[in-house]
Amino acid sequence: MKGKSFYYIYTIQKAKIMTNQKNWHEQHHETLSFGNHLADSVAKGMGSWRFIIAQTILVVLWMSLNIVGFMYHWDVYPFILLNLLFSTQAAYAAPIIMMAQNRQSDRDRVQAQADYKTNKEAKLEIEALAIMLKTIEVEKLDKIIKMLECARSDGGK
Fold this sequence. Notes:
mainly alpha; 5 helices
């Protein structure tokens, strides 16, 4: 029975330790600089349907106002200014998105390491449980054998 109470105490202590620890998401989030947060936000925004729809509306509005413009055409038909704006947007967006992707691969690596560590700990606990169950089983079998021996010796008299 010593093994059983030790395991319960060990489990309670481990649970207390685990509740006080920050998960890897929180730890990683705390290490990011302002620039990293900004890059992640920009990449998240540019990769959304909201951005695509808003940009499409702006482009259609830009072209419509320049084609139908009653008084002033600030960017006539080949829309060179619009192309310049898109080029500038792409020049800044590509490296920002790549920074966000690099950080995502770092997060994935950290998560994989945390998963591996958790799996190793779980394996050790499962092995400890298997040993404990085997010990309990052996103790029960020993008791049954003693009871049978006692019954046999009492029955023979």
